[in-house]
Amino acid sequence: MTDPVRLSKHLMALVGCSRREAELYIEGGWVTVDGVVVEQPHFKVLEHRVALLPDAVLTKPQPATLLLHAPANVTLEETMQLLTRANLSPAHRDMQRVLSSHLERQKPTLPLHVGAAGLLVFSQDWRTLRKLIDDARKLEQEYIVEVDGSMPDNGLKRLARGGTYQGYDLPPVKASWQSEQRLRFAFKDLRPGLLTQLCASVGLRIVSAKRIRIGGVAMGKLAQGQWRYCAPNERF
Fold first, then answer.
1. CA separation (Å) from 94 to 2, 83, 91, 97, 98?
2. How confident is the model over 48-63, as pLDDT tens digits?
3. Which CATH number does the domain housing residue 193 bear?
4. How many Å apart are CA 56 and CA 24, to the nearest integer?
5. Which one of 47, 114, 118, 197 is most buried, by most CB atoms within 10 A?
6. 180, 142 Cβ separation under 8 angstroms
7. Per-residue confidence at 149, pLDDT binned at 50, 70, 90?
8. What is the rounded radius of gyration, in angstroms, for the C-alpha atoms of the chain?
9. Looking at the domain assignment, is residue 236 inside a domain?
10. What's the mean pLDDT in 39-49?
11. Using an 8 Å Cβ cutoff, are 121 and 65 in contact?
12. Are residues 128 and 223 in the same domain?
């Protein structure tokens, strides 16, 4: 009885390529085993039907950056568990070929305001991670905040010029009403508790908050718990 062999070795014999080329084909999601894409070169095959997809290209998979609409009040571990094929936004499924490797070794960046929902960024790309870490204080973030309370008539102007509140320095922020109980905030250098302090400084209490943009990248129409790829033309 013939022993099982690595998928990469089987593919080498099947299409006459080198070991490295076989690994690139497999890791790129271009090889099927009994009709199912397999991305692991070490996968063992025996009496299986192995095929190389007709549009296969010899390129190493590029690192992926993912944008998730995170629910409020969940742990980072619970949030990362949402990065599955099933939770990819249906409206974005034709945006890019989904590889299992895109969902592995993802690193989170720029945490949300405590208790907030909204845009969380995960990336495998060291350039994106460095940008979000090194320029964190310079990147404008946008939040939609449901509030309770009564703001004074000059509240928006006070927020726009910054100041202090209970010993805390408050940066100038862009704030505008979206509805009677909903404010839009845009500001830089989001430190822990800043959003709460900004609202309290004008007599408001946060009911809920959602981040919708970081720098030049907006979350877009993502249902809560769903994710999409960050497009090549999107820049933080």
1. 40, 17, 8, 7, 9
2. 999 999 999 998 889 9
3. 3.30.70.1560
4. 10
5. 118
6. no
7. very high
8. 23
9. no
10. 93
11. yes
12. yes
